[in-house]
């Protein structure tokens, strides 16, 4: 079986703020930017890796989502517990400095982990946890 990861989804609360973070801070390419009524989906991905993308999506686009479900999602996003992604780099300290300089919320400065990586963590504008790791 030949399976790869094509898309993963992260919610956004402000499309422009999220776009700026992923495009300008992380350097991702914008692949698609689609709007429908009051909603907007933006597909971004690392340069040179067209087969892997992140879709920045409204947090509850399904019209069947209840008010209680929307409230729970909003609360979890505010705490940073709703969605996350782990990125990889060859220079986690350099990546940390660049992302921190952008004003992104730092969740963890670079540290060596006992499971063989050096990593750091940030929250994107919607509260999603973004971990950046460097294998050791």
Automatic annotation (TrEMBL):
InterPro entries: Glyas_Bleomycin-R_OHBP_Dase, Glyas_Fos-R_dOase_dom, VOC_core. It comes from the Bacteria. PROSITE patterns: VOC. Residues 4-135 form the VOC domain. Coiled coil: none annotated. This is VOC family protein. The lineage of its organism: Bacteria, Bacillati, Actinomycetota, Actinomycetes, Micrococcales.
């Amino acid at each position: 079986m030949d399976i790869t990861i094509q898309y993963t989804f992260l919610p956004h609360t402000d499309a422009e703020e999220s776009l700026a973070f992923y495009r300008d801070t992380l350097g991702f390419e914008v692949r698609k930017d689609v709007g429908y009524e009051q909603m907007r989906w933006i597909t971004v991905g690392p340069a040179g890796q067209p087969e892997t993308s992140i879709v920045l999506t409204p947090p509850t686009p399904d019209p069947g989502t209840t008010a209680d479900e929307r409230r729970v999602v909003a609360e979890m996003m505010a705490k940073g517990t709703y969605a996350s992604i782990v990125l990889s780099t060859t220079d986690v300290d350099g990546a940390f400095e660049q992302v921190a300089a952008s004003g992104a919320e730092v969740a963890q400065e670079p540290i060596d982990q006992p499971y063989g990586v050096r990593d750091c963590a940030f929250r994107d504008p919607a509260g999603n946890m973004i971990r950046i790791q460097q294998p050791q």
